[in-house]
Amino acid sequence: MNLHIFLREAKKIVTDAGNFIERNCGQVKKVEFKGKRNAVTWVDRESEKIIKNYLQRRFPGIPFLAEELNYRQEYTDLCWVVDPLVGTNNFSHGYPVFCVSCALVKAKESLLGIVYDPTRKELFWAQKGMGAFLNNRRIRVSRIRVLKKALVCTGFSYDFEDNEDTNIGHFINFLHASQGVRRAGAAALDLCYVACGRLDGFWELCLKPWDTAAGVLIVTEAGGKITKFDGSKFDIFYSEVVASNKVLHSKMIEILQRERRKIIYKEVK
Predict the structure, then answer these.
(1) What is the pLDDT of residues 59-76, one digit of tens each?
(2) CATH number (domain holding residue 170)
């Protein structure tokens, strides 16, 4: 399998889909909802068709796991994992923080990851074992060593009120422990920003494979670290992720576990 060919074709179609999305930003009149806050538009669906049709024509027989297709199978062999529009709520309001995410995954591990931000013309990409890049420039995670000097980021699930862990406790803890906390609303971009050093850490709950499959590889290839909240090995079918510049990772885990212990105590009590 020549991953260079897969990468070249995926970069092309992800860029095309992203530019299609940007052209339609501010033009969407009707927004549907899959839940209380989880928006979807015809642009999401059309972007997914653009990517799916191209990749399946170029690489027939490789399954396609994507948000709007409602596929939920955990593929153990090779598959594409795609979010055709990360940050639909932002997009539907004309807020320019959204992207397209695409990964080639085998046995729950990403071989290729591509994330394109059309508003800034920034293409983040990585091939396993070959480093991470922003457009044609190699990127690395930050060198911040003290959490109090770190800028970190998170997100909230659409149905956070229905979860025992709403993430609000973690958010408050990091407000006190870090230099600042951001919430942009596009997990794939948050991961890429950790990879290129704009952010020093990221955590989030209730994520799906298409949220993380590309970004976690880009972070890892940029020298960062990805785990579950308890510090154990992460895979893209797990819903909680912590990403960091590696140096700050143990401190972030410590803060996350502090809140988890409170939740467990309340349950027992």
Answers:
(1) 998 998 987 665 555 566
(2) 3.40.190.80
